[in-house]
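note to self — DONT lose this again. spent like an hour looking for the file last time. sequence + predicted structure for the chain T wanted, 271 res
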Amino acid sequence: MATTTSRKKRLVELSGEELGKLFGLIGASDSVELKVTVPASAHQGTIAALGLDPLDAQIRQVFFLDTPDLRLNKAGIAVRARRIQGRTGDTVVKLRPVVPDQLPEDVRHSASMNVEVDMMPGGYVCSASMKGKAPNDEIRVAMRGERPLRKIFSKEQRSFYAAHAPDGPSLDELSVLGPIFVLKEVVVPKDFGRKIVAELWLLPDGTRIAELSTKCPPGEAFDVGIQTRAYLQDRGIDLEGESQTKTKASLEFFASHLPAATPAEEPAPPS
């Protein structure tokens, strides 16, 4: 069911056959998100180049659910809950990589399902996300172990999880990996005209992961990709540094600190 290129192979290095697969995935998806991780050495320069202001950022608190040995992550499943400043929280059960046309019809056409291709300098991946909403307070209570974890997920999400979880475990048996303190800001540069989303993920060990992204319809993916790359490079933003996947870094950190992270405690915002 799944296919993806190696994350180490750049898009410009893809063969004709690999490009054909990529075009097929994009054509069958709902959206495309272009992403780049900014090296730590370029964080300050990026803030200045895009005119970012931390006082305009939205605060988010992200929790992942997995087993201590990250069994779900290894099987391509991500389960996440997110508390969001100023609006209701959300949840997602994500499967990746996927081939959109191979998803069951009822799942593919669900109003809660989004199939998206993430394109990065080092490759691409197509994912299927079953999304849901949950009040911030309910997520907080569940993450503290005071309510069954399954209660913050919809019936549709629970069914999607059960269909793909490798030999269990149930949602209630998963470990809480988090929280991660996240700052998100959306800017629309006047000389670019498209939304650019900047996220800064702050891990308890001091690791800072900055990511820039923009979304577009499938038919515009390559044009928008070229335009976005040119715009960022023209402003001196380093796009060639080694990528650090925020999900992978977060899972590995909290999995190695599970005794201290279960039940989850809320970190104070960085000074």
